């Protein structure tokens, strides 16, 4: 019982942090993490403040997954796996992250929320 409460509290806190950091991206716009942005030094704080990541996390609800659509090739695949690792380190379950080739941009990972919210 206590574990369930702690899980829900963690989820609420996680969502609140992402919502507070979600400035700069309008709902409905495609969400991207560009290669230029990714080339900057990365920290958990910097990723929490990234507008597209914050918006995607704010839109992500129970029962949904976050799709990372990456540019093709080995470089795109490695980049997506690194982003996935950071998201897991920040508390998002790896089971809720889907890596897919096929970004609409060659210089960016596209973020999409998929599935029906519970």
Keywords:
four-stranded mixed sheet; 60s Ribosomal Protein L30, Chain: A; 118 residues; alpha+beta
What does this structure look like?
This protein is 46% helix and 19% strand. It has one domain (2-114): 2-Layer Sandwich (60s Ribosomal Protein L30, Chain: A), CATH 3.30.1330. Strands 1-4-2-3 form a four-stranded mixed sheet. It has helices spanning 2-20, 35-38, 44-48, 51-59, 73-89, and strands at 31-34, 65-70, 97-101, 108-114. β2, α5 (73-89) and β3 form a beta-alpha-beta unit. It has 118 residues and is α+β, with helices and mostly antiparallel strands. The model is unreliable at 18-27 (pLDDT under 50). The chain contains five helices and four strands, in the order αβαααβαββ. It is globular and about 35 Å long.
Question: How would you spell out the order of helices and strands?
Answer: HEHHHEHEE
Question: Describe the biggest sheet?
Answer: 4 strands, mixed
Low-confidence stretches: 18-27
End-to-end CA span: 20 Å
Mean pLDDT across residues = 83
Number of helices: 5
Tell me the structural class.
Answer: alpha+beta
Gyration radius over CA: 14 Å
Task: Determine the CATH topology.
Answer: 60s Ribosomal Protein L30, Chain: A
Strand content: 15-25%
Q: Tell me the count of domains.
A: 1
Please give the CATH architecture: 2-Layer Sandwich
Total strands: the figure is 4
Helical coverage, percent range: 40-55%
Q: Give, in spatial order, the strands making up the sheet with the most strands.
A: 1-4-2-3
Question: In CATH, what is the class?
Answer: Alpha Beta
Gross morphology is: globular
């Amino acid at each position: 019982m206590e574990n369930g409460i702690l899980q829900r509290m963690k989820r609420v806190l996680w969502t609140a942090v992402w919502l507070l950091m979600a400035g700069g991206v309008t709902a409905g716009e495609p969400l991207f993490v560009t290669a230029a942005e990714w080339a900057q030094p990365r920290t958990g704080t910097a990723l929490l403040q990234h507008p597209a990541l914050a918006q995607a996390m704010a839109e992500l609800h129970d029962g949904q997954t976050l799709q990372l659509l990456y540019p093709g090739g080995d470089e795109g695949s490695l980049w997506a796996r690194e982003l996935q690792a950071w998201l897991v380190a920040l508390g998002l379950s790896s089971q809720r992250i889907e890596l897919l080739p096929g970004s609409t941009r060659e210089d960016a990972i596209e973020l999409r929320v998929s599935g029906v919210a519970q």
